[in-house]
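Dear colleagues,

For the upcoming journal club I promised to circulate an example of a predicted protein-ligand complex. I picked one with NDP because it came up in last month's discussion. The inputs are reproduced below in full, followed by the predicted structure.
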Amino acid sequence: MAEKKKKLTTSFGKPVENDLNSITAGPKGPVVIHDVHLVDKLAHFDRERIPERVVHAKGAGAHGYFEVTNDVTKYTQAKFLSEVGKRTEVFARFSTVGGEKGSADSERDPRGFAVKFYTEEGNFDMVGNNTPVFFIRDAIKFPDFIHTQKRNPATNLKDPDMFWDFLSLTPESIHQVTILFSDRGTPKTYRNMNGYGGHTLMWYNERGDYWWVKLHFKTEQGIENFTGEEADSMRGIDPDIATRDLFESIEQGKHPAWSVKAQIMTPEQAKSYRFDPFDVTKVWPHGDFPLIDVGRMVLNRNSENYFAEVEQAAFSPGNLVPGIGPSPDKMFQARIFAYHDTQRHRLGPNYHLLPINAPKSEMNSYQRDGAARYDNNGGSGPNYWPNSFGGPDPDPSMAVPPIEVSDVADRYAYELKDADFVQPGDLYRKVMSEKEREHLVKNIVGHIKGAQKRIQLRQTALFYKADREYGERVAKGLGLDIAEVERLSKMSQEERVKATEK
Ligand code: NDP
């Protein structure tokens, strides 16, 4: 039987008799304010836009599942990882970072790779990128860093001086810069890229034993990137290429999948490891910590409504579940605060109740009220704890294992500064093919050539420190004096900054 045709109503349910003509005083007269439908319609339209995400504004998402493929119960009590074959519903959102909501998908930028696992013990959010490292390792630099990747405050234009000035004054960014300017900085689609948790997390079991863990999502579609030129032209041909590709692939039944893997380090190993395991500008080389299988993620369902499901999706690295805990990674610690905070601003204090964000497990908190509280707000149950009226109690068995911390509170600079150049050098020398190196240098030269010469020199000295040939090739592409670059590369960062002051 055909479904009964629905009747149009106001947002309060009153049937609407006419949606073409406002009520006016006579056919040529002014509109009257008692046209409640008109006022309601315009007033809601006026409020349709919510704040754009400060970063990761342009994105696409899809629903799917995660399936456990290997027994990792030795390492974690997380229930969603408790059994091979077990499936958990997920929602993933991919994005560019610096561009506005209408910007092109093929921009050179890291890609956000965020996955919400709706587990039986609350939501676990993996809020990573398509790169395993980040530009900075202390969030105190984050607002400054992002300002430099956005628009110049005077001209409202992207500004190579701002971009490279900050990066060249922030040498720990060299690893991520090297990845960003390789062709991995312009992935062809969201399906053809890996995802990396980046941060080190803790995994712990019922006995309280714990390990440090890094998560990797390896694409089963294969890595595919645009060259710099292809990415540039794709901005004009199809600015929504990655969004379109994800949606259409899933519509056509080509469900993208990623194999999920982990690197695992013992607390003992962490104490003496040659790289700081909590420094998000570093990877753990696979030779030291091989990838072990964990599971597989498949995306098989598009959102029905983009705003409700993708735009309102709110992820936070602070969303952890029993069996997964935080690490002392400084960026991770700050993100635990900042992600929830920005979503409260963007979506309101009850954003966790929106269907896309709400856990599919029980949610029993004593939080009450606040704007747009649209569940039953705890009903008639007690709104405080402790109480003797049968309200929910904390469960001490869910505690994260204690970790030893004792030191003097201060603002500490990172000590192992020379280590910043080892991994980008390895990437350039050992991992990249000659063709990839050629593209890397070309992509860098094409971008930094718009910056002032003193900034070019300062940054090229950092490339030179990572690898001599890398620095020389960039210097050659920019027409810089290689001897000058070499001289700058031998200085301390402080001396280099002084030598390249305006
Ligand atoms: P491996 O040879 O074991 O691994 C190299 C990794 O580099 C692979 O995971 C590969 O990903 C990835 N890769 C290939 N090309 C690029 C590129 N242009 N940009 C970024 N990553 C790329 O080496 P190690 O583990 O010893 O690491 C060597 C260097 O590789 C590191 O310093 C780091 O720069 C980079 N890397 C390391 C990762 C890690 O977790 N150990 C992860 C990603 C990069 P794929 O499997 O898709 O081919």
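Two points we might discuss: The chain has a mean pLDDT of 97. DSSP finds 15 helices and ten strands in the chain.

See you all on Thursday,
B. R.
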